Amino acid sequence: MCGIIGYTGPRQAIGILLKGLENLEYRGYDSAGVSILNNVEGIRTFRSAGKLENLKKLIIAEGENSSQEGSSGIGHTRWATHGAPTEQNAHPHSDCTGDLIVVHNGIVENFSEIKEALEKSGHVFTSETDSETIPHLIESLLLETKSIDEAVRNAALRIRGANAIVVISKSEPGKILAVRLGNAGGITIGYGEGEMYVASDLSALIEHTTNLAHLNGGEIAIIDKDTATFTDLSGKMIPKIPGKVDYDPVSITKGDYQHFMLKEINEQPEAVISSFRERISFNSGDVSLEGFPLSRYEIRALKRVVMVGMGTSLHAAMVGRHWIERIANIPAEWDNSSEFRYRNPIIDEETLFITISQSGETADTLAAMSEANRKGAKQITLCNYPGTQSSRLADGTLQIKAGLEIGVAGTKTFICSLTTLYTLAIHLGRERGVLNARNASGLIQELLLLPDLLGETLQRDPQIQELAQEFHQSSNFLFLGRGINYPIAMEGALKLKEISYIHAEGYPAGEMKHGPISLIDETIPIVALVPLDSLHEKMLSNISEAKARGGKVIAIASEGDDLISTKADHVVRIPNCTENLNPFLLTLPLQTLAYHTGVKRGCDVDQPRNLAKSVTVE
Known catalytic residue: 2? Predict the structure, then answer.
């Protein structure tokens, strides 16, 4: 969601803040702003609606002058919730005096009552946002105490909802306060040499430092150029030791690729290797999952597995269900995180509860985890970054190890989530005694072939570009799959919607005659996932039904399937592989189809409209 960056130290802050916001663009945003603590003019704020380029032009138009100088400041990219995406509603926001500045990620659930009380006491608001209540609230509390630290703490106690807040004040130059409430988007503190950083995301910091600390919910960081101290909301000190991460700043550049999304699609063979490396033994058939918290006894006591996620992560859970049932012989189910806690889910200590969230900060998934914790379920979480909120809520964490992903639409994080779920299914099967060493070794040998198979699949890109050229002006798409490949049809439809803004639906092919078939005519392309597997003949029948009604069928099919060429209008081939690996290979043509279609339509494929990389509010 919203991106946050802060800096305090000896250097000019404005360039660091703008570069940090540039590295946060992938999260999605509709306005941007920075505030610089200036020795001449106090605090100077620049804000603009639209892309970051508009903010840069605004700053350049002012020319190089003293108003832009200052060695501390904060910046923000906003994704609108309360109030339209305008300059007036852009962050940072200030109090009545202009001496107290705030950037914010989240939703202040009780902002209406706070605002009403503040207006009655004389505060004047200049925006439509809930965020502006925060600096005014802190200002009002400063009347009770002269300590900015205490005023911020007291304000945090009055705010309801999941929120991340960063504050600077003219009265204490060089100090930054950061607050995390509930399961709001992350707050990371970066330690430099005589300088300190704060950001909502690792990508804004790794050019400068890899020594980081993370805020948990209900914690405050008080930062100056030399260090950070941490307290809870009562003011009690919390010891934290920064940890080192291994991300390379080079990984946030596009290299020779036109877009991050295309770069990340092509990184998937290598990402899969990173995901399973050090976890599997090709000789013994064993899987070692560092961070998996259950003993063999506890695994054998499990009665079922429940997986939750949102969007692409939910589709990974849907695929994972098939592997866990097939390989580990445990009843498994999936659910949408945002729906899970609004019923009475029947889970207990004999349930393994698995959450999937590439960011580890998805608000609805974190809420589902809290519900599962309340009911006593064993929990593991799959995410792509260390130190996330989901890792702190779960009993154990399985890093999917996709590496930094900049494109808003998940590509390699999806493939690496699948890889992690596949290895998890093998581990559960071995520990439960339902999968012997020989069969486990066979599954692992299949996985060893996967990077080469993915690389071979990527060679179909020129054909995908031709299909994008032919169909990019279509208004609707239908994606069909069966069994383990039905979730991949869902994922293909989601990617096309996200990237090209074309309406698309993913369906189980057997459902077609129960409604969707009425949509089919000569104007609608139908993407059919029809590999050589146990449901191949049934998929052929569904394709015939679509063709009989004039549909244009694009089949993603296995090499050596001669029959499909007589039934489909276009055939994209994937290498022959086992039924377990088909979801991986089917995914890549759908990702590249969405990418090239979006490019043909002139869409911003790395930062699709209205979307954010991490959805950290409900």
Answer: yes
